[in-house]
Design goal:
The protein is built from ten helices and 16 strands. With 308 residues, the protein is an alpha/beta fold. It has two domains: 2-154, Rossmann fold (3-Layer(aba) Sandwich); 183-306, Beta Barrel (Elongation Factor Tu (Ef-tu), domain 3).
Length: 308
């Protein structure tokens, strides 16, 4: 997948693409429908998105809300078969463009697109003044076709990042999976921790949760993709997501134990998919009680994962 990080530096192979446009946080089934509508046999498939998320730009002190960091989104888009990712910098320059200037200078002039697909609720340009219908009019003027896709959902309602966040906050990863069309994943590099898990017989790969919406704290059955290195592949595992109350005050992180694995993962990038919530975080009186509970967690996770 070719990645463009500014509209003035488009890869020549991506000019003339058909591109879906949006923030695509989570890449849920509604987002995937927009991307599928952009597929054309005679054009490269592109996705236009923004980094940082505009909401982060305008409210930098707000609580973390993102379902995906930029790495996770890139990984998922590559799996969806996207040829060109236009990851545009959302900064004062971009935020200050009028809707007309954005359509003319970014989409037509900079990226050289032939076709753009957006959801019916898409807004763009300075103060979000541009609507999907306005984009269609601009496209006719500046030489690109525009498709507006109606919002889609299920009997439970329109697919939305808000509903997915709610499901994860309540420890319902299966419901999040149904709305996403894939497992909710946390991607990132394995960091050095305090290595307590190794002493307990459960070595873990530690990953940061900075900037992400926090699912319910607790223990999960997980599917883990090791994305690079000599151990590249998929593994079953069990993960603790939270603040580790057994060991004092700690920043939230994700600690994942891979079953039947022996190797060094420091610095390697993982993608951890939440399959099922096993229990909430607990503080035990002794390490022996903690280990016994971890043994039980692992047995339950193996049983659940064997059926997936």
């Amino acid at each position: 997948m070719k990645i463009t990080t500014h509209w003035t530096k488009t890869d020549p192979g991506c000019r003339g693409a058909s591109a879906a446009m949006g923030n695509f946080d989570g890449l849920h089934r509604g987002h995937q429908a927009v991307i599928d509508s952009a597929r054309r046999t005679d054009m490269a498939l592109g996705v236009i998105t923004f980094e940082p998320h505009p909401r982060e730009y305008f409210a930098p002190d707000a609580p973390p809300f993102r379902l995906m960091n930029a790495e996770s989104r890139r990984n998922r888009l590559a799996r969806l078969g996207v040829d060109c990712l236009f990851q545009l910098p959302f900064d004062a320059e971009l935020a200050g463009l009028t809707p007309e200037a954005f359509a003319r200078d970014v989409l037509a002039g900079g990226l050289g697109l032939r076709h753009v697909v957006v959801g019916a609720d898409f807004c763009f340009g300075q103060r979000r003044a541009g609507t999907a219908e306005m984009l269609r009019d601009f496209g006719a003027r500046f030489g690109f076709e525009v498709t507006i896709l109606p919002l889609i959902g299920s009997e439970s309602g329109v697919f939305s990042s808000t509903a997915i966040r709610e499901a994860l906050s309540e420890g319902r990863p299966e419901d999040a999976t149904q709305m996403l069309g894939h497992r909710h994943r946390i991607d990132g590099a394995v960091q050095h921790g305090e290595k307590r898990g190794r002493d307990l017989g459960y070595p873990t790969a530690n990953m940061s949760l900075n900037g992400l919406h926090l699912p319910r704290f607790g223990v999960y059955a997980v599917k883990v993709q090791v994305l690079s290195g000599p151990h590249k592949g998929e593994y079953d595992g069990v993960a603790s997501l939270g603040v580790r109350p057994m060991f004092g005050e700690n920043a939230p992180n994700l600690e994942t134990h891979l079953f039947d694995f022996d190797g060094d993962l420091y610095g390697i990038h993982l993608s951890v998919g939440l399959v099922a919530f096993l229990r909430g975080e607990e503080k035990f009186d002794t390490l022996e009680e903690l280990i016994a509970r971890m043994d039980d967690d692992s047995a339950r996770a193996r049983t659940i994962l064997a059926g997936t």
